[in-house]
Amino acid sequence: MAIIGEITEKHRLSSPECKQQMMPVQDALDILHGKWKLLILMSLSTGPMRFKEIQRQVEGITAKMLSKELKDLEINELVQRTVYDTIPVAVEYTRTPYGNSLKKVIDELHAWGVQHRKRVMRRSN
Amino acid sequence: MAIIGEITEKHRLSSPECKQQMMPVQDALDILHGKWKLLILMSLSTGPMRFKEIQRQVEGITAKMLSKELKDLEINELVQRTVYDTIPVAVEYTRTPYGNSLKKVIDELHAWGVQHRKRVMRRSN
DNA sequence: CCGCATCCCCAAGGATACTG
DNA sequence: CAGTATCCTTGGGGATGCGG
Questions:
Q1: What is the largest CA-CA distance in chain B?
Q2: A residues 65-84 near B, CB within 8 Å?
Q3: What b/e string do you get for A1-30 counting C-beta neighbours within 10 Å, with b at 16 or more?
Q4: Where is each HTH hxlR-type domain found (chains A, B) (predicted)?
Q5: pLDDT category, A4, cuts 50, 70, 90?
Q6: B100 → chain A, closest CA residue
Q7: Does nucleic acid strand D have an atom less than 7 angstroms from the CB of A52?
């Protein structure tokens, strides 16, 4: 029980700094939350993409969701929308430089996902 | 319009590989989704932590959610739960080595959040 | 102190049909 | 092709209260 008390005390002291560390993460999650946003950004990693193209790449997303998520991403300046005045209209979506700044985040998440998948495979055998 | 056709064609070709890249990310998001999981993992970065301690650090989370999220994290072996047979019982949560493997992901998200906050501040002035 | 049980609400998300 | 509109379901999340 003494050990518990010690541990508790130790971390209560470091609490304020911990909260400071969390705020930025909370900010990031606010913008990137949901099932789709990061996947959409990924699909734009190779270059501009049209609506249907993105929908094909991001498996399972409905037009409604894609439309909404793209709007959100545009508001946060992670994605740019360009309309070409053709018939029928063509719309291209591009990652902005700011959107590209998420590359590392996505890369790390991807790397973790890869090894996680391996791990799950291993355990299920 | 020619340019559109070209762009479309180019990326349709790279589509299969893109989907491959997305699956791991989707896996990762499945485990880490929601408002709280990453924040909880962050709060455990400095060492073992008791239930109430975590709740104090993760601002705004209710006991119910914390309980549920900790269970999920335990199932996925990112967090370990230890019960001390004291009166009243004390329960400690620790990041497993596997949970620690998410450090880079969290770090990148944190780094992005920090600069995002700066950016938002700048624009609102 | 560490939760679980219950009730409740709302936003996220899905299905389908439809327009310019 | 690029979405909107509508309706619907699910579950994330909050509030409160209780039990070991």
A1: 75
A2: 84
A3: eeeeeebbeebeeeeeebbebbebbbbbbe
A4: 18-121
A5: very low
A6: A112
A7: yes
Instruction: Please name the fold of domain B34-124.
Output: Arc Repressor Mutant, subunit A (1.10.10)
Give Cα separations from A56 to A45, A84, B19, B100 (angstroms).
15, 20, 9, 34
Tokens encoding B61: 């989370």
Residue-wise pLDDT for A54-94, tens only, equals 999 999 999 999 999 999 999 999 999 999 999 889 999 99
B7:A92 CB<8 A: yes
Residue type, A54: I
- Protein-contacted positions of strand C (CB under 7 Å): 1-6, 12-17, 20
Query: What kind and span of H or E run contains B29?
Result: helix B15-32
Q: Enumerate the domain spans of chain B.
A: 1-33, 34-124
Count Cβ neighbours within 10 Å for each residue of B14-36 and write b for 16 or more, e otherwise.
eeeebbebbebbbbbbebbebeb
